[in-house]
């Protein structure tokens, strides 16, 4: 464990996201309360009340209006941020692809929580997965420090003029949002310099150069216009790598679009998102002590999906297990299907593939559970799709 | 307020170009132009999905000479509020220096029904924006389906008149008063034939310093089944029959009858019977059958009750 630096603080994930946004000082924030996100906007409202930010803060009457207001505010030329979770993100869904097709670079923190029903306030990734095909960039954090860091990194990727896409910053509900961890914040002026001034393209409030935003497309234009977001996503991968490298130079913290842990010589590799990456690293360490050549990786950048980086990392592995904290009834887990498709990229022998659905609705998944999953795969007991912890 | 003259209005820049694709006889572009004549300054326009949005912005064309934004159907007010919030923030921070007014246009489906929550939120929060409802009394863009603004007895494609039905069963909800009861500085009902009244209300709305709402009747030749050259006379008839009285409300408490309706209230002009209104439009044609006589009586009764109530509110 690294020794604590003098400016380290103890803070929960929601507080860390709010702190990042206080330092970024956006022009507008509009949000609607929902557990486990609420602490973010409560804390931000406190910054507003005490004059610590210049932001206009709007208490909207729903998440649908939150995302609408943020979308038009950002289109108007204001740096804008919001936060939500679960039902909130589901209620926003109509607006998600509109925001991205309008190329609005607003940032939204998602305190990942199970989607009803049954109603459940605890963590899984069903909210973020339901948003995965809507044209939003999507970043996942493993711990509180990362939730803070990614909040500062996100605007740089989203606002890049060749990207211009909205971005989700995911942090696991309760596991990160409410857990107090040690964290090293950056100095205010360092954040300010790194994020820079918002330079919107074709802002609505430039009344001398009037533009019409979000027109109606017939069949001749809809498809080619949608295709523009594909190009933007492609560009975002390159931009993300540059921004992560630049972030290392100001923070000393190194992030990659795909994080790998003991994968180099591993024979079996798990792919996981979010806070469970930390739990699985511990499982890997213990398996290594037992002589098992295990590894684990996390696509930090979930959208765009870093195809080449994942394909390269998994090439030549004997077995791959994909951990989905989200269930797709009647099919594979969402990320499993993506990893399987990615493996085709490199050609050659494809590893034996297994899918684990785990931790839905806050179901506790321990180091020992993950170790057992690795062993079940290695020893041939695993099915193609497994529901970890459920008596099947 | 100085009198509004056509000569003055003629000097105001045209923000909505001709050549848009609204139907012949559609009142919406007439209303939009009258509303925007309420200010000589800069305007940013928001639209909810609907006839007006579709017809003025079919890519690669736009009819807008002023900044315009649209996102979806049920969120016109939130969209307008977002632009206004950005303006408030940037203006306060000295990042922009222009004075800009904000107007949102939406149909009755987008206002009375799917966008009611969004509208209520924007009004309650005090955004300095004018919200205009083009009330053509049904979902016209999707093909004349009933909304909660549809007149009782109207035949629509989801409330057909038939052997067992006289058409729409309910009286439209009184949205103008619902919005007025939010206590916002300015709320009004207007109609496109009364252009001077419309422009002066828009002026008041733009200058009221807070949220404002104008509900305008918007005769629709296709949906109401009347010839496209009768839009203005139908608008006039709506006021003459007290189907659509003209009035304004300040801060939810001060009701004022507008000149045309005031003359009826004061007995200077005769209040026309609803049968004149019914006879003017094909959507009510079936009500002329003898068996629906009680329905017509009920409609007249409903209009009378609402009219008497409004007279009381206006302290006449």
Topology at a glance:
The complex is a heterodimer of chains A (392) and B (316).
Chain A: E1 9-12, H1 13-24, E2 28-31, H2 38-49, E3 56-59, H3 63-76, E4 80-84, H4 86-92, H5 96-101, E5 107-112, H6 126-130, E6 137-140, H7 144-158, E7 167-172, E8 180-183, H8 188-195, E9 212-213, H9 219-251, E10 258-261, E11 268-271, H10 276-289, E12 294-299, E13 301-303, H11 307-314, E14 319-324, H12 334-346, E15 352-357, H13 367-378, E16 385-387
Parallel strand pairs in A: 2-3, 2-4, 4-5, 5-7, 6-7, 11-12, 11-14, 14-15, 15-16
Antiparallel strand pairs in A: 1-8, 6-13, 10-12
Chain B: H1 6-9, H2 28-36, E1 42-47, H3 51-56, E2 68-70, H4 76-92, E3 100-107, H5 108-113, H6 116-125, E4 130-135, E5 161-162, E6 165-166, H7 175-180, E7 186-190, H8 195-207, E8 212-217, H9 221-224, H10 231-240, E9 247-250, E10 254-257, H11 259-265, H12 274-279, H13 293-313
Parallel strand pairs in B: 1-2, 1-3, 3-4, 4-8, 7-8
Antiparallel strand pairs in B: 5-6, 7-9, 9-10
Can you describe this structure?
Chain A folds into two domains: 9-251, Thiamin diphosphate (ThDP)-binding fold, Pyr/PP domains (Rossmann fold), CATH 3.40.50.970; 258-387, Rossmann fold, CATH 3.40.50. Chain A is built from 13 helices and 16 strands. In chain A, strand 11, helix 10 (276-289) and strand 12 form a beta-alpha-beta unit. With 392 residues, chain A is of the alpha/beta class. Chain A has helices at 13-24, 38-49, 63-76, 86-92, 96-101, 126-130, 144-158, 188-195, 219-251, 276-289, 307-314, 334-346, 367-378, and strands at 9-12, 28-31, 56-59, 80-84, 107-112, 137-140, 167-172, 180-183, 212-213, 258-261, 268-271, 294-299, 301-303, 319-324, 352-357, 385-387. The radius of gyration of chain A is 21 Å and the shape is globular. In chain A, strands 3-2-4-5-7-6-13 form a seven-stranded mixed sheet, with helices on both faces. Chain B has a single domain, classed as Thiamin diphosphate (ThDP)-binding fold, Pyr/PP domains (Rossmann fold, 3-Layer(aba) Sandwich). Chain B is 38% helix and 15% strand. Chain B contains 13 helices and ten strands. Chain B has helices spanning 6-9, 28-36, 51-56, 76-92, 108-113, 116-125, 175-180, 195-207, 221-224, 231-240, 259-265, 274-279, 293-313, and strands at residues 42-47, 68-70, 100-107, 130-135, 161-162, 165-166, 186-190, 212-217, 247-250, 254-257. An eight-stranded mixed sheet of chain B has the order 2-1-3-4-8-7-9-10, with helices on both faces. Chain B has a two-stranded antiparallel ribbon with strand order 5-6. Chain B is globular and about 65 Å long. The interface between A and B is large, with 44 and 47 residues.
């Amino acid at each position: 464990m690294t020794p604590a630096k003098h400016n380290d603080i103890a803070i929960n994930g929601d507080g860390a996201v709010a702190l990042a946004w206080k330092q970024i000082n956006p022009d507008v924030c509009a949000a609607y309360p929902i557990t486990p996100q609420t602490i973010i906007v409560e804390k931000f409202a406190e910054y507003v009340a005490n004059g610590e930010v210049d932001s206009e803060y709007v208490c909207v009457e729903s998440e649908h209006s939150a995302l609408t207001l943020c979308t038009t505010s950002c289109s108007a030329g204001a740096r804008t941020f919001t936060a939500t979770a679960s039902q909130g993100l589901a209620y926003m869904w109509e607006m998600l692809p509109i925001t991205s097709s309008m190329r609005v670079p607003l940032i939204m923190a998602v305190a990942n929580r199970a989607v009803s029903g049954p109603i459940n306030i605890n963590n899984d990734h069903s909210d973020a997965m339901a948003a995965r095909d809507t044209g939003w960039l999507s970043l996942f954090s493993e711990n509180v420090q990362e939730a803070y860091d990614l909040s500062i990194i996100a605007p740089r990727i989203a606002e890049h003029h060749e990207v211009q896409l909205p971005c989700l910053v995911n942090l696991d509900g309760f596991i990160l949002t409410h857990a107090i961890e040690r964290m090293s914040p950056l100095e205010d002026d360092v954040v300010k310099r790194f994020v820079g001034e918002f330079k919107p393209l074709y802002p609505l409030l430039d009344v001398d150069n009037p533009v019409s935003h979000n027109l109606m497309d017939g069949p001749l234009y809809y498809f080619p216009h949608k295709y523009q977001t594909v190009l933007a996503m492609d560009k975002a991968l390159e931009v993300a790598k540059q921004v992560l490298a630049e972030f290392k130079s100001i923070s000393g913290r190194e992030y990659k679009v795909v994080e790998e842990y003991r994968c180099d010589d591993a024979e079996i590799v798990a792919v996981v998102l979010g806070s469970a990456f930390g739990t699985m690293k511990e499982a890997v360490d213990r398996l290594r002590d037992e002589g098992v050549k295990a590894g684990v990786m996390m696509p930090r950048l979930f959208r765009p999906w870093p195809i080449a980086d994942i394909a390269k990392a998994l090439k030549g592995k004997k077995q791959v297990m994909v951990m989905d904290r989200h269930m797709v009834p009647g099919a594979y887990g969402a990320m499993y299907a993506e990893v399987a498709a990615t493996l085709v990229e490199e050609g050659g022998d494809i590893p034996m593939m297994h899918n684990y659905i785990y931790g839905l609705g806050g179901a506790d998944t321990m180091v020992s559970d993950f170790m057992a999953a690795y062993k079940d795969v290695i020893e041939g007991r695993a099915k193609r799709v497994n529901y970890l912890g459920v008596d099947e | 307020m100085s009198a509004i003259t056509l000569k003055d209005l003629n000097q105001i820049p045209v923000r909505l170009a001709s050549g848009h694709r609204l139907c012949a006889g559609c009142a919406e572009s007439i209303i939009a132009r009258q509303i925007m004549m309420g200010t000589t300054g800069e305007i940013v326009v928001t639209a909810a999905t609907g006839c007006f949005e579709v017809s003025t912005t079919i890519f690669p064309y736009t009819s807008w000479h002023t900044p315009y934004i649209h996102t979806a159907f049920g969120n016109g007010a939130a969209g307008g509020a977002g632009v206004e919030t950005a303006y408030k923030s940037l203006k306060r921070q000295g990042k922009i220096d222009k004075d800009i007014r904000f107007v949102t246009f939406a149909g009755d489906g987008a206002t009375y029904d799917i966008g009611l929550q969004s509208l209520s939120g924007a009004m309650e929060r005090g955004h300095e924006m004018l919200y205009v409802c083009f009330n053509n009394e049904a979902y016209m863009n999707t093909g004349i389906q009933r909304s909660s603004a549809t007149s009782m007895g109207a035949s629509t494609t989801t409330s057909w008149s038939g052997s067992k039905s006289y058409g729409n069963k309910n009286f439209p909800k009184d949205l103008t008063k619902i919005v007025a009861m939010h206590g916002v500085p300015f709320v009004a009902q207007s109609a496109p034939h009364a252009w001077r009244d419309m422009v002066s209300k828009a002026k008041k709305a733009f200058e009221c310093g807070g949220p404002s709402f104008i509900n305008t009747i918007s005769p629709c030749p296709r949906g109401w089944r009347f010839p496209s050259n009768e839009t203005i006379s139908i608008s006039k008839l709506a006021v003459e029959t007290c189907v659509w009285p003209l009035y304004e409300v300040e801060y939810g408490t001060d009701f004022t009858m507008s000149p045309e309706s005031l003359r009826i209230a004061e007995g200077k002009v005769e209040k026309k019977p609803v049968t004149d209104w019914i006879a003017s439009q094909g959507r009510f044609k079936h009500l002329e059958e003898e068996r629906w006589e009680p329905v017509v009586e009920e409609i007249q009764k409903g209009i009378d009750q609402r009219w008497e109530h409004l007279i009381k509110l206006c302290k006449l």
